[in-house]
Amino acid sequence: MAKESLDDMLCFSLYAASRAVTQAYRAVLADFDLTYPQFLVVISLDHAGELSVGELGAAMQLDSGTLSPLVQRLESRGFLTRERRVGNERVVVVALTEAGRALRRDVSLAVECLPEAYGIKRDEIVGLLDQLHRITVNMGELTTSLRSPAPA
Amino acid sequence: MAKESLDDMLCFSLYAASRAVTQAYRAVLADFDLTYPQFLVVISLDHAGELSVGELGAAMQLDSGTLSPLVQRLESRGFLTRERRVGNERVVVVALTEAGRALRRDVSLAVECLPEAYGIKRDEIVGLLDQLHRITVNMGELTTSLRSPAPA
DNA sequence: TTCCATAAAGTTGTGCACAATCTAATTGCG
DNA sequence: CGCAATTAGATTGTGCACAACTTTATGGAA
After folding, report:
1. SS3 at position A151
2. Assigned CATH topology for domain B9-120
3. SS3 state of residue B150
4. For strand C, which nucleotides have at least one atom less than 7 Å from a protein CB?
5. Nearest residue to A131 via CA among A17, A23, A7
6. DSSP per residue, chain B
7. Which DSSP string do the residues of A68-96 spell out, in sequence order?
């Protein structure tokens, strides 16, 4: 064995599929000058109402190093507000503005057509989502254990 | 409907799973000072013997804007050679050096343990790879058609 | 109350992704 | 041949991802 090609490696198939999907979203989101991660932030905030930067990071699996500048860019364009929580000034709470909610509505309509084009049958989707979640959880735990010191 | 959370969106589940897997690889590859895309280049070259930058791009689905600097970094560390093809000086042919092949062997051993940790049963893998390939192909075509002008 | 550990977000630096542009080599057509 | 169109890579600029570090705020414990 060994010498397998990239297409037989699950890690690469995931990497390629994720980028292909993101590119399709990018093509649609370009009309709104939104990047794909920015789109995810808008979706999350519309869903949750308001979230701290940390909660947003938990939802998207991203740290403040990625989210802070991303959220600042969306704030500077008027799509969301950032304010420190009274009683705990460390926490920055983020919420959509009315312009942000309008954007969410317009963008949702525009991307609605994309999931149909996956070529995945409706009855395959639930199983696929479950497999992807398992991979995400298991790899997250593995990464954590790889970084921890070996058992004392 | 609408108002669904990120975890129910296939695009996000793919994005999260891909990053989680890449992070596990990163934790292992750190010992070799290799990034995940650099690892994929080493695998591809070991598999194919030698490839032009364009062929490497076709295999990895990346353009020269990403590959050129990446390949140059690997060349500067002595893992591969870059030379223009005689008879067509536009083409740059890339191949592993002996050091590159040795790196491939060492890295392969180190990452061998990762696929077992996905938590995906052996008999699920083939179907999952097939679904991911379908998504990659279908989204690639959709992106192309979204960028082309409407049918004349 | 003072001080230290912890927590949350922001900052900095590197390397991808990708669009857009540029340069140079090649092809082909008049 | 002469030269416009094409092709292959490289370059430039923006924005993510992520590690490492800094800043500021909070919460205890002595």
Report:
1. coil
2. Arc Repressor Mutant, subunit A (1.10.10)
3. coil
4. 7-13, 15-20, 24-27
5. A17
6. -----GGG-HHHHHHHHHHHHHHHHHHHHGGGT--HHHHHHHHHHHHHSEEEHHHHHHHHT--HHHHHHHHHHHHHTTSEEEEEETTEEEEEEEEE-HHHHHHHHHHHHHHTTTGGGG---HHHHHHHHHHHHHHHHHHHHHHHHHHSPPP-
7. HHHHHHHHHTTSEEEEEETTEEEEEEEEE
Evaluate if the CB of B65 falls below 7 Å from strand D.
yes
Nearest-angstrom CA–CA distance, A148 and A143: 9
Q: Which residue has the tokens 């999350």?
A: A44
3-state helix vs strand vs coil in chain B, percent to 5? 70, 10, 20
Mean pLDDT by 10 residues, chain A (152 residues): 80 98 98 98 97 98 98 98 96 98 98 96 96 98 86 41
Q: Give the span between the Cα atoms of A10 and B63, in whole angstroms.
A: 21
C-beta atoms of A44 and B134 within 8 A: no
Instruction: Give the whole-angstrom CA distance, residue B13 versus residue A60.
Output: 10
Taking only Cα atoms into account, the Rg of chain A, rounded to an integer number of angstroms, comes to: 19
Compute the distance between CA of residue A35 and CA of residue A100 in angstroms, rounded to an integer: 14
**Has this prediction a pTM greater than 0.90?**
yes
Of B3, B17, B21, the CB nearest to A47: B3
pLDDT per residue as tens digits for the range A74-107: 999 999 999 999 999 999 999 999 999 999 999 9
- Nearest 5°: CA angle at B66, between B93 and A23? 125
